[in-house]
Design a protein that fits this description.
The structure holds two protein chains of two kinds. By secondary structure, chain A is α/β, with parallel strands linked by helices. Chain A has 22 helices and 19 strands. Chain B is 22% helix and 32% strand. Classes of the chains: A alpha/beta, B alpha+beta.
Chain lengths: 627, 233
């Protein structure tokens, strides 16, 4: 939210004006606890994040508490605000960030971490937890990066690990019922603040970094250990087992400007148990939990009626795995087609069933079809447990061509553990097979219009996955393999894009970092790093210097192979899957053995049953069988 | 083929774009009205073809930052509706400062009902500036109206050329500030036709040039907001 005279001077001013349809404005004097929900990126990105609005709904459903939105202004607006001494304020009531009781910040990926410091500083809150006074808000982080909170441990008072809805409910229960000496921010001293943090830390799923000390191990890595017996060795991730019982934003806020995703959304399923060995989401959001079609129909209808959107998107890590997907799509169609609402399904499995589903959704206008084989050779696909064959892919693409698609996008990774140059050549052959298929299956004019997008990202090892011990491939190898792709993918119908290797290096170094990285992140931010996920503002040199200033080497940290028998900084978080399971999966990967999905087979003993007694919560039929 | 073209049904909606909403782009406005119409449940007519869109048309677009008191859009409907009925359905769908001013409904063979405007009336509010008095402004306005031609440089994507905006400047006057801490206002009526188009910013430019030569120093007019008051033919 910016004053009018600044709006005249910034790019896309309408993203700062607020007053959107369905925003919830509660007079500050009428609520007991005020929560700022912050997305540390631009408005357009943050407004497209369903998770933020799930929490917005969770808080605002309660009468005596209020949630308001805060986003990071773009660099031009930040410069003006700093020059004019204008602090960062919320959209709903233009409250300065430091005046909230709770500041929740979602950590969606590593390249937004400097944005968090920018956001706190611009909001008038000391960036380090230890520098905050009793009057400062409680600063809580959540989201995927909370599964290794250590690189941000110095900046947060608390982290919420796992599903945010139940954690936030418990936190609000606590905060709305505090004794006066903890409650009154104006009179709260530092010692009271520390007691408050301790009380919050007792909530299931909350990690308070201050309760854990860090002593360097023999490698110099800082491993958090409880300061006293009251703290668990590892904080168990919170799991909302019954999704139907969780709040969902059925009146989402409608942005005036075009957001990244301009559509209504329903989350059909959370979690995935296919067990791809590189995938953090597939490991840390287990088990797969579904909402009922009845609930989803209700949520979809009210979201469309309240917004006027003409598109509804089904959210899940893998939509075709939803056990009643055909039934759901038919019902949504029957309900929404008359109002000219199209239904979209962004995540697809690689099989003809998925293509048939997508065809039912996009009967008329065929946008691109996106499939993710991830690796080029069968050997490597087995190693990463992506249980798809070349035949599956070609059959799916052939079905897509026959159904009228002329644009296909294929996602791959490069630098996977155990990868050879031949595996990368296999990516090129696979893509060229798809091209040849297009020549056979498409009409002459269709083949002329064919576009095959090939997106290749460097594999980045993430905590709590079987590949967490592996390093990022070195830059020379990645460059050589990228050259192989360019050499073999020459047809003009193929559009190859390969991710930036230096940004990948930073992401890898931050993802598996320990508490030493807090100083690195602060140093980089003080040197001007912000919006690192945006290529126009990312500066690798600045980051290398920031690591160097702390006696660390970004390249080395990114590439490090970690010992499988030593403690890891993120062992302080119990994501559900156990070290034994991850090690077993790593061994299978090395032997090229696949592991089936536990939804269709026996329990694999991944460790989730410790957190969810009746795991899996529903015994499903496996998808809808392919005919 | 012979025979009369079919009768079509339209709602002509007058709306305002004021306050902070003046920062919306034309595309943002289109999206906002589209969604308001869908929420209101109006039986809007859709285009044919692969990618049907609601048949909603607008008059000449306002720029980002430009305000409007009586902007127009035409919504084609599947069936005739009363103006009141449309107004009642639409009004709660938009905030007051981007609100519906009035609705008219028409059934006719014509496809377009809000084109053909040749003039636009504007009010420009200046920020207070003690060095430029009301007297100075009135003098400069008088000289502009007396001038035979007013040359400005207009840049388009492909070329830069000189144009005379005097034929497009129909009326121009100075009004007192609305409040004690506001600045003076300029009211003007300008041509919209391509061949004699004049823009508010170009009139300001001519005024600045006049004031500068009069004072022997560079004078800038600090514009707070340009409001299009209405369109006429």
């Amino acid at each position: 939210m910016l004053p009018e005279k600044l709006l005249d001077q910034v790019e896309t001013p309408a993203r700062y004006i607020g007053g959107e349809r369905n925003q919830v404005v509660k007079p500050p004097s009428e609520v007991d606890v005020r929560v700022a929900l912050c997305y540390p990126d631009t408005y357009e990105v943050g407004m497209s994040h369903a998770g933020l609005f799930v929490l917005y709904e969770t808080v605002n459903q309660r009468g005596n508490v209020a949630a308001e939105r805060v986003f990071l202004p773009w660099v031009d607006a930040i410069a003006l605000m700093r020059a004019e001494g204008i602090p960062l304020r919320s959209y709903e009531t233009q409250t300065t960030l430091s005046d909230f009781d709770v500041v929740g910040i979602t950590l969606q990926h590593e390249l937004t971490l400097t944005n968090v410091l920018e956001l706190l500083d611009l909001g008038g809150i000391p960036i380090r937890s230890e520098d905050r006074t009793g009057a400062d808000p409680l600063v809580i982080g959540g989201g995927p990066c909370a599964f290794n909170p250590e690189p941000m441990a110095d900046f947060f008072d608390l982290f919420a690990v796992g599903d945010g809805e139940p954690v936030l409910q418990d936190l609000l229960d606590l905060l709305t019922d505090l004794p006066d000496e903890l409650d009154r921010r104006e009179t709260r001293d530092r010692e009271a603040r520390e007691r408050l943090i301790l009380r919050c830390a007792a909530i299931d799923g909350i990690y308070a970094p201050a309760c854990y000390g860090t002593d360097p191990d023999s490698r110099g890595m800082l491993i958090p250990t409880p300061r006293d017996d009251g703290c668990p060795q590892a904080v168990a991730r919170r799991v909302a087992v019954d999704l139907d019982a969780q709040p969902w934003p059925t009146r989402p806020v409608v942005p005036w400007v075009e957001a990244v995703h301009d559509r209504a959304e329903v989350e059909i399923m959370r979690g995935c148990t296919r067990g791809c060995r590189f995938c953090q989401a597939g490991m840390v959001y287990r088990p797969a939990r579904e909402r009922s079609p009845e609930t989803l129909m209700e949520q979809a209808s009210s979201a469309i009626a309240a917004t006027g959107y003409d598109e509804l998107s089904l959210l899940s890590l893998n939509c075709p795995d939803y056990s009643r997907i055909s039934e759901l799509i038919d019902c949504l169609h029957a309900e929404l087609a008359e109002d000219r609402v199209s239904v979209a399904m962004p995540s697809l499995r690689i099989d003809t069933f998925s293509v048939a589903l997508a065809d039912r959704l996009q009967r008329v206008r065929k946008s691109g079809l996106t499939l993710a084989p991830e690796a080029g050779s069968q050997r490597l696909r087995n190693a990463i447990n992506k249980n798809v064959t070349q035949e599956d892919l070609l059959r799916a693409v052939a079905a897509a061509f026959r159904a009228g698609w002329q644009r296909v996008k294929l996602y791959f990774m490069m630098g996977l553990p155990g990868e050879t140059d031949d595996d990368v050549r296999a990516i090129a052959s696979l893509v060229n097979e798809v091209l040849a298929l297009g020549r056979r299956e498409l009409s002459r004019s269709g083949y002329g219009r064919l576009k095959i997008g090939v997106s290749v990202n460097a594999f980045i090892p993430k905590p709590h996955t079987p590949f967490q011990w592996s390093g990022l491939a070195d830059e020379e190898t990645l460059r050589r393999r990228r050259a192989l792709l360019y050499e073999h993918l020459t047809d003009r119908r193929i559009q190859l894009s390969v991710s930036d290797f230096e940004a990948a290096q930073l992401e890898a170094a931050l993802a598996r970092g320990d508490r030493r990285l807090c100083e690195v992140i602060e140093g980089a931010w003080r040197a001007g790093a912000v919006f690192d996920a945006w290529s126009e503002s990312f500066d690798a040199e600045r980051w290398r210097d920031a690591f160097g200033d702390c006696g660390l080497d970004m390249r080395h940290l990114a590439a490090a192979e970690l010992a499988t028998d030593a403690a890891l900084p993120w062992d302080v978080i119990d994501a559900g899957v156990t070290r034994e399971y991850l090690l077993r999966e790593l061994a299978h990967a090395r032997q090229g053995e696949i592991t089936p999905d536990c939804r269709a087979n026996d329990c694999l003993g991944c460790g989730m049953a410790r957190l969810v007694p009746d795991c899996p919560p529903v015994r499903w039929e496996m998808g809808d069988a392919e005919s | 083929m012979s025979g009369r073209p079919p009768i079509r049904h339209f709602a002509i909606v007058t709306f305002r774009k004021t306050d902070r909403f003046r920062f919306l782009s034309h595309l943002d406005i289109n999206r906002a009205i589209d969604r308001a119409v869908r929420r209101a449940g109006l039986p809007v007519k859709y285009s044919e073809g692969y990618n049907p869109s609601a048949r909603i048309g607008y008059t000449s677009a306002l720029p980002v930052g430009g305000a409007g008191e009586r902007e127009l859009c035409q919504i084609e409907l599947e069936r005739p509706m009363g103006a009141d009925e449309v107004h009642r359905a639409m009004a709660p769908q938009l905030p007051e400062k981007l609100g519906i001013v009035g609705v008219e409904t028409i059934s006719s063979e014509k496809r377009k009902h809000i084109s053909g405007h040749t003039r636009a009336e504007y009010e420009i509010e200046l920020r207070p500036a003690p060095e430029t008095t009301m007297e100075d402004l009135r003098g400069a306005v008088g000289e502009l109206l007396d001038a035979g031609s007013l040359e400005v440089v207009r840049e388009t994507k492909s070329r830069v050329r000189k144009v005379d905006i005097r034929p497009g400047l129909h009326e121009l006057s100075v009004l007192e500030p609305r409040t004690a801490d506001a600045g003076p206002r300029l009211q003007m009526t300008l041509a919209l036709q391509q061949d004699r188009l004049a823009k508010p910013s170009e009139v300001i430019e001519c005024l600045e040039r006049r004031l500068s030569s009069e004072n022997g120093r560079e004078v800038r007019l600090d514009v707070r907001v340009v409001t299009r008051l209405g369109l006429s033919s």
